[in-house]
Amino acid sequence: MTTMTHVLTDSGTLLHRNLLHMLRYPALTYFVVGGPVVFLFLFVFVFGGQLGAGLPSTGGSDRAAYLAYVVPGILLTAAAGTAGGTATTVAMDMTEGITARFRTLAISRAAVLTGHVLGNTIQGLIAVTLVLGVSVLIGFRPNANPIEWLAAFGMTTLILLAITWLAVAMGMASKSVESASNLPTLLVLLPFLGSGFVPTDTMPAVVQVFAEYQPFTPFIETIRGLLLGTPIGLSWLWAIVWCLVISVIGYVWSMRIYNRRSVV
Amino acid sequence: MSTASLSTTITPGLDRPLKNRTSARQTVSNSLTMAYRGLLKIKRTPEQLVDVTVQPILFTVMFTVLFGGAISGDMASYLPLLIPGILVQTVLTTSVVTGVQLREDMDKGVFDRFKSLPIARISPLVGALLADTVRYAIATTITWIVGYALGYRPEAGLGYVVLASLLIIACAWSISWIFAFFGVIARSASSVQGISMSVLFPLTFLSNAFVPIDTLPTWLQPLVNLNPISHLITAVRGLADTGTIGVDVLLALAGAAVVVLVFAPLTVRAYMRKA
């Protein structure tokens, strides 16, 4: 067996472990889905009438226009929300000594982290799909063709991989499980501070500059464009660049901590 | 000096006329002492004030900066609608802490210690509720200051702002009896937090706190109109923005009185049973 085969086999085994965790503790998935669904109902039914009035008309009501606008933001809030669970499970593994146990086994070092990343990415995809399902139930009607759906799925997977690598690093850097669960909450705020819930041109100048250049704005604009046919421009390119940058930062940071901290 | 003058007669405990009641004066005195204990806790652990300091700043800035332009066209015109709403939401959310801390104290066993003291049984409960009015006052003051810093100018003037603040504090104090009840009957502090927030979250957001009622879906409007928090927010807006003491002020006060009349006896009974 080659080194690469070893890495893949070990990653598969540890992915299986993480998926078992997900099945045994479904509460975490419910929590990841629950928050964005509450936001969806809150923003569509409470704020939708008022916020939709300023959006370009879609032929329907202001609320319908706002529903179409906000769903991509909600989907990425769900994606960002998975980071908390990821960081918590990683911190639990670090503090409870299982990671130290893995260090003594003849398995690939990268596989331990890759297992976490892949497992939580799958959990994130399930959460995003469930939130999308609820959105469709309350009237969201995307007009994407199969290729655009595939591109949206690929983009969401890339975003989730990037967020998860960063969350793994945050979980490993945390001194306790409590601080690990608090650290990634900043990520959930980013869709709000981007074009997720209101157009950036309605924000004050200082916030607008931040909103336009932070990673979640191109993420949201790309998903919105793919699902609804709104102009994407270069957002797709920026989204991919941001995903790669965040993934590399997360990977390097987590591997460095893993090699340094998990020695028995 | 004779030995007779030094001798004292000790009455056996069984023959001694023991009191199992405290006077109203002693109850008030004990309750104020317990309230002072609550204030000392705030002084010694100021980090517990994070919710009353950070939340109003975060919510006010976030809603004004992020949604002000989209909801009202610009930040300034959104503030008269938003600040009273944020104010009520923040102070009512703060009242949850009463129940949580009560449960924590009961879990730590400090209330068992109070039971062994010759004090009014009810005083630790009343003291905790009184001390928390300071938290409400801090939350109220900070929200007004943040609103002012962002450009909000209550038309009615300072006198009516103070009246509006007192109304909110009174209503929050009355609602804290509900959370105190949860605190007494619940199994853990986290469950008190969970129950309380699941009650408060829909009540505060399904109100007229952030948007005018007529922009809500028609099926939701009757629910929002029935929501007592909507009446409190309307009362605060009326006081701060136009200086009117309308029907909503009376409804808010009547609602607060009803809550106290229902939940104070329930809480006291549950507390006495546990104590």
Describe this protein's structure.
- The complex is a heterodimer of chains A (264) and B (275).
- Chain A has 264 residues and is mostly helical.
- Chain A has one domain.
- The mean pLDDT of chain A is 80.
- Helices cover 78% and strands 0% of the residues of chain A.
- In chain A, 47% of the residues are buried.
- Chain B has 275 residues and is mainly alpha-helical.
- Chain B has one domain.
- Helix content of chain B is 76%, strand content 0%.
- Chain B is built from 12 helices and no strands.
- Chain B starts with a helix and ends with a helix.
- The model of chain B has no long low-confidence stretch (mean pLDDT 82).
- The chains are: A mainly alpha (264), B mainly alpha (275).
- At the A-B interface, α2 of A face α3 of B.
- Chain B: This is Transport permease protein.
- Chain B: It comes from Cryobacterium arcticum.
- Chain B: It is found in: Cell membrane; Membrane.
- Chain B: GO terms for molecular function: ABC-type transporter activity.
- Chain B: One of its GO terms (biological process) is response to antibiotic.
The largest sheet of chain B is: none
- From the alpha carbons, calculate the radius of gyration of chain B and give it in angstroms: 23 Å
Number of strands of chain B: 0
State the end-to-end distance of chain A: 28 Å
Shape of chain B: elongated
Uncertain segments of chain A of ≥5 residues (pLDDT<50)?
A: none
From N to C, what is the helix and strand string of chain A?
Answer: HHHHHHHHHHH
Number of helix segments of chain A? 11
Looking at how many chains there are and whether they match, the oligomeric state comes to heterodimer
